[in-house]
Design goal:
Blueprint: E1 2-9, H1 17-31, E2 35-42, H2 51-60, H3 65-78, E3 82-85, H4 95-103, E4 107-111, E5 124-125, E6 128-129, H5 140-145, H6 152-172, E7 175-178, H7 181-189, E8 197-199, E9 217-221, H8 230-242, E10 250-253, H9 259-266, E11 272-276, H10 280-288, E12 290-295, H11 305-312, E13 317-320, H12 325-328, E14 335-338, H13 343-355, H14 357-374, H15 377-399
Parallel strand pairs: 1-2, 1-3, 3-4, 4-7, 7-8, 9-10, 9-12, 10-11, 12-13, 13-14
Antiparallel strand pairs: 5-6
Length: 414
């Protein structure tokens, strides 16, 4: 199969699970013998633009005509079987869908977040769940609240893109890959075409390091942001420490807007270590040495890559009991789920998962089995190829003059 992957890479200054997923899928497909090309833009390149070039970036968010022309020409020249779209913000834009229609190549798209129904894609505002724009005709609440980067001005391009390109997305993509059933439920409720929303969990490569003993630390690995539950974790750990601790330190690895706060909180403590940003190998080793990995997100995670990475290493997880975590973590079997946003519940789960080594070990083994059954590279490859074949078959029906799915209208052309 010949696949062209389309992706706008996120800024390299921050760790990006989405960039990792794209890279891993490309490597997986190539390793299985498929021909895979990549059409990409890099957010890092914005810094090198002239001042007028930087000022023009918001105008490209809803529509980038140069990308449409460039991608359409490449598609006509290479004739891939399918295009796999990931992130298009900010430099690619939904013009990539028009290019696919121009060249007559079917498109699939992985929905890594909630940008189809929420301009910043988080379903969160001011540290709380927010669904004001879900199902709304226009995402004006997001602009009013300045949901992207706390800026009304910065939110406008995203809101405009969502409004003017909604039907283009819904009609121009043969199959959407939702990364969890929880995400799919939200999108279907918002009016997206249920028949083209398939659940395809992200896979994780089998790590070269698995836990062999009881573990040395409790690990938080991720972005240091309010939405990730970092302040909640600090409060819960303080409660745990006040009760005598759990016999293992908390290791926090990552960077983000709360880095200064985390650094100050951890300073001078024996029970907390802030280690900054780990590279991929350091992350794997840290996970394999963990008593448990904690994922206390306050927003509705569309997936939970760190949870699956812990599963792969045979490590149980303490996670918030909402969003995708509910389907990833079997409470009491492969990890523990705490009440979302509840300090006391998180503290209780941290105590519980560290208090019984034998039970913790059994949870780790069960987590590893769960990984092998649902999140291994073999499973990921099978689901990817199934999705591609379904998209190709759907486009073939249209090409033969079969029934046109509702809303296709102009074939996704602008």
């Amino acid at each position: 199969m010949h696949v062209l992957v389309v992706h706008n890479r996120y800024n390299s200054a921050q760790p990006s699970g989405e960039n990792n997923v794209v890279d891993q899928e490309v490597a997986l497909l190539r390793g299985a013998g498929h021909r895979v090309g990549v059409f990409e833009r890099r957010s890092d390149d914005i810094a090198g633009r002239s001042l007028p070039g930087k000022a023009a970036v918001p105008l490209l968010v809803p529509w980038n005509p140069a990308v449409r022309r460039e991608l359409a020409a490449r598609l006509r020249a290479e004739r891939p079987d399918v295009v796999h779209v990931h992130n298009v913000f900010p430099l690619l834009s939904p013009a990539v869908l028009a290019a696919c229609a121009d060249a007559g190549v079917p498109a699939v798209a992985t929905l890594h977040n909630y940008t189809q129904v929420c301009p910043p894609g988080t379903l969160q505002r001011e540290g709380r769940s927010c669904t004001e724009c879900v199902g709304a005709a226009t995402p004006l609440p997001a602009v009013r609240h300045g949901c992207y980067r706390d800026s009304r001005l910065a939110t406008v391009p995203l809101a405009v893109s969502l409004s003017v390109n909604r039907r283009r997305w819904w009609s121009g993509v043969e199959r959407f890959f939702c990364i969890s059933a929880a995400q799919r439920d939200v999108l279907v409720a918002a009016g997206m075409p249920a028949e083209r929303l398939a659940v395809k969990h992200n896979f994780v490569p089998d790590p070269d390091a698995r836990r062999s003993g009881a573990g040395e630390h409790v690990l938080y690995l991720g972005r240091l942001a309010e939405a990730k539950g970092v302040r909640l974790l600090m409060a819960a750990w303080d409660e745990v420490a006040a009760g005598g601790g759990v016999g293992a330190p908390l290791v926090i690895a990552g960077t983000g807007p709360l880095e200064g706060e985390v650094t100050a909180w951890a300073a001078g403590r024996d029970d907390v270590r802030y280690v900054g940003l780990y590279d991929a190998e350091q992350c794997r080793r840290a996970v394999a040495r963990a008593v448990a990995v904690v994922a206390p997100s306050t927003w509705l995670e569309a997936f939970g890559l760190v949870v699956v990475e812990a599963m792969a290493a045979g490590v149980p997880t303490v996670a918030a009991g909402h969003g995708a975590f509910v389907e990833l973590v079997e409470d009491g079997a492969t990890g523990l789920l705490h009440r979302p946003g509840d300090t006391a519940s998180l503290a209780a789960c941290l105590r519980r998962i560290t208090a019984e080594p034998d039970r913790n070990r059994r949870m780790g083994l069960a987590a590893r089995r769960r990984y092998e059954q649902g999140f291994s590279p073999a499973v990921g490859l099978e689901r990817l190829v199934e999705g591609y074949r379904a998209a190709i078959a759907g486009r073939s029906v249209l090409a033969r003059g079969g029934d046109t799915p509702a809303g296709r209208g102009d074939g996704g052309r602008r």
